[in-house]
Specification:
alpha+beta; 4-stranded antiparallel β-sheet; 7 helices; 223 residues; 12 strands
Length: 223
């Protein structure tokens, strides 16, 4: 019978399912806009949040600082909008990819990112998650140039080849992987909370501010 969507997702990430679908260059699925802003256009007092290459890691965007245009580096020029996908062209093996949500839609990003803007007929979630697949990672490794400062360029990004299933399959795969990403982030947040609580307990216990009940403290380890 036909494989389940979950099975298809697993095969996609391992590079198997991609051989069952037609392959097309990324430029058939998305535009690569290079919208930019200049100090003259917005004025030196224009304030914005700036996304640098080091702020993006495997889908996550760090807490950002605000800059005024007069203080911004020359690479702080690229405009983005909601659902744009960022691909770091420097050390791309580190997977500096992210999808712009409503929170970051007004940010300016470094020109060190390539920006993918999915076309209306393409599921942005599918396109975004495909970047983390073994298929794409293999292609990127073959494109990287430089040893001390490995990088790719916009032409390389344009030449990436993606498997293209039917739109409903794209949507199901994107939804499954979105849900998995949400669960991972929730688990990480719970881990962070527990770590913070442990640090508090450690501080209170080792300084004597909290006392261990005698009945508990007197227990001995079993032989």
């Amino acid at each position: 019978g036909r494989p389940s969507t979950v099975s298809v997702v697993v095969m996609l990430l391992s590079g198997v399912a991609s051989r069952q679908w037609p392959r097309v260059p990324v430029t058939h699925l998305a535009d690569l806009p290079q919208d930019s802003v200049s100090a003259q256009e917005e004025g030196e007092e224009y304030t914005f949040e700036y996304i640098t290459l080091t702020d993006v890691n495997a889908g996550r965007i760090s807490k950002l600082a605000k800059l005024q245009m007069k203080d911004a580096p020359s690479r702080a020029r690229r405009r983005v909008q909601q659902d744009d996908i960022l691909i770091s062209t420097v050390r791309p093996n580190l997977q500096g990819y992210a999808r712009i949500d409503a929170r970051h839609a007004d940010c300016i990003v470094s020109t060190g990112f390539a920006v993918l803007r999915a076309r209306p007929e393409v599921e942005v979630g599918y396109l975004y998650h495909y970047l983390f697949s073994a298929d794409i990672q293999h292609q990127i490794r073959s494109m990287v140039t430089g040893s001390s400062y490995p990088s790719i360029n916009l032409g390389d990004v344009s030449n990436l080849m993606l498997a293209l299933p039917a739109r409903p399959v794209q949507a199901r795969i994107g939804a499954i992987l979105d849900a998995a990403e949400t669960e991972i982030r929730l688990a990480e947040r719970q881990r962070d909370i527990l770590q913070e609580e442990k640090q508090l307990w450690t501080q209170q216990l080792v300084t004597g501010q909290w006392r261990v009940p005698e009945a508990f403290a007197g227990r001995q380890r079993p032989e």
